[in-house]
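Hello everyone,

My group is preparing for a crystallization screen and wants a predicted model to guide construct design. The compound we'll soak is magnesium ion. Before spending weeks at the bench, it would help to have a computed complex in hand. I've included the protein sequence and the ligand's SMILES below. Output in structure-token form would be ideal because that's what our pipeline reads.
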Amino acid sequence: MSIDVSKIDVRFGGVIALQNVDLTLDRGEVLAVIGPNGSGKSTLFNAITGFVDIAAGAVAIDGENLASIPAARRISSGISRTFQTPRINATASVEDAVLCGFQPHARTGLWAGLLRPPSMRRSERDLRARRAKLLQELGLGNVAKQQMGELPMGIVRMVDIARAMAAEPKYLLLDEPAAGLSKAEQHVLVQQVRQLAARGVGVLLVEHNFGLVKRLANRVVVLDRGKVLLRGTAEEVSRQPEFVTAYLGTSTH
Ligand SMILES: Nc1ncnc2c1ncn2[C@@H]1O[C@H](COP(=O)(O)OP(=O)(O)OP(=O)(O)O)[C@@H](O)[C@H]1O
Ligand SMILES: [Mg+2]
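Reply:
Good plan to model first. Here are the tokens for the complex, ready for your pipeline.
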């Protein structure tokens, strides 16, 4: 079971954001994607989640071509993501923001909603209990009632991660999750990502903090100007001379 990206190209007008990019993300592994600003990391996430069109190549989720999965069904195809800039409703409470993430599991139809039978009340209770557990695990229990707009970026990012985890995805795509996180929050993040991978979730991690990449990633793909420059373990890629220029963003781009 895997996400398979096969030789994809993504273009924005004349800009080639991704070119001939190939990678596989297996369940239970953490794969990091690193590279300088503008190298195509977020575009790769957008291609995998169907946010941008692919000009060539294909993305398959557990063997099913993404292009053949209708947009309405993609939400339940088992992929969750966070955004580089979390999209928040400033007036929502933390617990409401996280509740949105449970959507794929909230199975209530129109009649059930109108009649509110015991089964629905039970499932609501169940969702609330799972949300409380998740908030606790991510160290967000004490801010559950606070408004998103009042919180520092580190906490907002953790809430966004909680929302993505609530869907109990098979694959989790994290776009620079540690940006703005305190050391303590980073520690919680590392523990959570390790636990998820141990439970069989495939994690794709875009992260500028190479220390975190080294701690978490089984494998690393280095992108540069939309192309795969290097692959290997964090240790292996960091020994390559091209790594320094690409990673420090001093390529001639
Ligand atoms: N919606 C868009 N329209 C036009 N160009 C875009 C769009 N999204 C990305 N690009 C361009 O595609 C290239 C790759 O951008 P992308 O955001 O994927 O890079 P990134 O590796 O995530 O960079 P960063 O580290 O700054 O987040 C850049 O040249 C960017 O300007
Ligand atoms: Mg980006």
